[in-house]
Each structure stands twice: as C-alpha cells, then as structure tokens.
Amino acid sequence: xxxxxxxxxxxxxxxxxxxxxxxxxxxxxxxxxxxxxxxxxxxxxxxxxxxxxxxxxxxxxxxxxxxxxxxxxxxxxxxxxxxxxxxxxxxxxxxxxxxxxxxxxxxxxxxxxxxxxxxxxxxxxxxxxxxxxxxxxxxxxxxxxxxxxxxxxxxxxxxxxxxxxxxxxxxxxxxxxxxxxxxxxxxxxxxxxxxxxxxxxxxxxxxxxxxxxxxxxxxxxxxxxxxxxxxxxxxxxxxxxxxxxxxxxxxxxxxxxxxxxxxxxxxxxxxxxxxxxxxx
Length: 280
Description:
Largest sheet: none
Oligomer: single chain
Transmembrane segments: 6-28, 40-61, 67-84, 91-110, 122-146, 167-188, 208-226
Helix content: over 70%
Keywords: Membrane, Transmembrane, Transmembrane helix
Radius of gyration: 24 Å
Shape: elongated
Low-confidence stretches: none
Number of helices: 11
Strand content: under 5%
Number of strands: 0
C-alpha cells in the first residue's frame, strides 16, 4: 500500500500533470493558463483524478485495456474539469497521449539495452522506477517550456476563423491515424521492454525497435501535417480578410468620388463572392 501511495506521488501524478498541460498547449489553448490562474488548480485536480484512475486500473486490466480506458476517460475529464469543448477535449487528449508515447518510447528504447536484464526488479521498486522515469519527465517539461515560450502548437483552436468543414475532415483523418500508430507503438514497446527476452530475440529485437522508430517517425510527420493544415487555413483566412478589406476600401473610394453606380456594382460583386465562399 505504501508503494502505491509513493508511486502515485512520484510517478503517476507528475506524469498526469505534465501530459495534461502538454495536451492543452498542443491545441493552442495558451489563454487557458494566462486568462485564469485558477486553471492551474483545475489541471492539478485533473492530474490527481487521472493518476488515481490510472493507479486503480493498473492492476485490474491489461496494458492495452488501460490505454483504451485512458482514451475514453481523459476527454470526459477535460470537458467537466477543464471546461473544454467536446472536439477540443478529444483532439487534445489524443495529442497528449501521442506526445506521452513519443517521449517515453524514445527514452525507453535508448535505455532498454541497459535495463533489460533488471526490468522486473526496476518495475517492482518504486524509487528505481521513479529514477527511470525522470528523463522522460524532464523531456516533457522541456516541451512545455518551449511550447509556451515560443507559442508552439500542433493546431490552433483559439482562432475561431479557421473552422472550415474540410479542415475538420482532415484533422479527423490525421487524429485517427496518429491514435492508431500510437497504439501500435505502445504494443511494440511493451513487447520489447516487458516481453520474454528469448521470444524477443527469436523475433529479432532490433527489427522491432526499427519498426518502433518508423512508427514514431510517421507520427511526427502526421503531427507536422496537422500543424501545416492549421497554418494553411490560417493563411487562407488572412488572404480572404485582406481581399475583403481591399474591396471595402475600393467601394469607399467610389462613394467618395460619388460614383454610386459603380459602387453598387462593386457591392453586389462582393456580396456574391461572400455568398459563394460561405460554404467553404
């Protein structure tokens, strides 16, 4: 029981807290932390509940099932505790999970040759497990600092004007692809870290690790694709806004010159253009 409490304080709680923050930042919700300082308390409450649930399900379901439980519960916690919208919660939780898997897999893949023979002993000792998780937590903390300082995000849900139908279709496709690959990376990493050494060697451990790295590479590419999609629609909207302002200036000049007929024609053309582009 003492080990459970210690594991909760040293491992589960910091992990949930950092991933919660990363999830929010990944969707560009920087104002979540700057507008209301109480949101930090909300993140902490989220982390406590998430870590407690993680600890509760840890010894009751398999690793694969616990991952699915995480995917189902985290968006609900984001909605009710952090007051995010449904689509924000789902996408933020998946991106948070992706960043968690990427950081953990990178470190564990590097450390695996050095800890393979003692992995069972390490995972049975809370202090050793805490020490093993420290590099991952430091990497996650570094990502948070860089993201917040330089306003780095995967997508930007604070910009209301980039919400187009085709944008969301592409985002859904990317998110489903990322979540599938995250699950595969999780399974392969579990096989390498926790699998029977003899079975892993018979399959060729190096080949499995190469597949893990390839999956991580594809996840990163898909994540960048999501960001590029957001940037595309953001820039597209800027162009539409500039074009609209130019038309307003042109019409204003026509009115000042008392060229009413041509001004009316320009207004009608602008109205037609806005109607056509309303559905895009």
